[in-house]
Task: structure prediction
Amino acid sequence: MNIPTPANSPPEVGATLQRLRLARGLTLEDLSRIAGVSKSMLSQIEREKANPTIAITWRLANALGVAIGELLTASDGPADTIRVLDAHETPTLPGNHAGYVLRILGPMELAGKYEWYELTLAAGGVLASSPHDPGTTEHLTLLHGAVEIEVGSETKKLKTGGTARYKADQNHTIRNTAKTEARALMVVIHR
Result:
């Protein structure tokens, strides 16, 4: 039995949030890390025990790569043939303390298989990563600037237009060695 929701009630986003999260193959923990929203809060929202603030809804929409309106509607209708994300809708992982910003360009449902990012490194910025799962590789194409890539005990320089391919199942670091910003596209392939 469907009970109509009064027009003045807040939207129930729990089912939509859960549907979008599961369609992208994300756990509550994954979404919590990407969106910066506690796992317990996400669980409460999905169970309709709490309504998110506008700020939390915005962070969740960004993390899921959808417009905020899509998160607030319960539509299960057919998807658009072409889905366009505006720049402000692209999820971002800021590493301001380390001088980097990662824009998540790939769809969330491929996370853990194929991921692609736009990496921006401030002058002197560093993206240091712990080992990923065994067999994981990264492919970094430098669009602007100069970077140094360190994998294990080996270090290589990369110039604009060059591509570095390396094993990412060990400690690896991308370091901007220039006095200007560096920008690159990074593809991560999990085996």
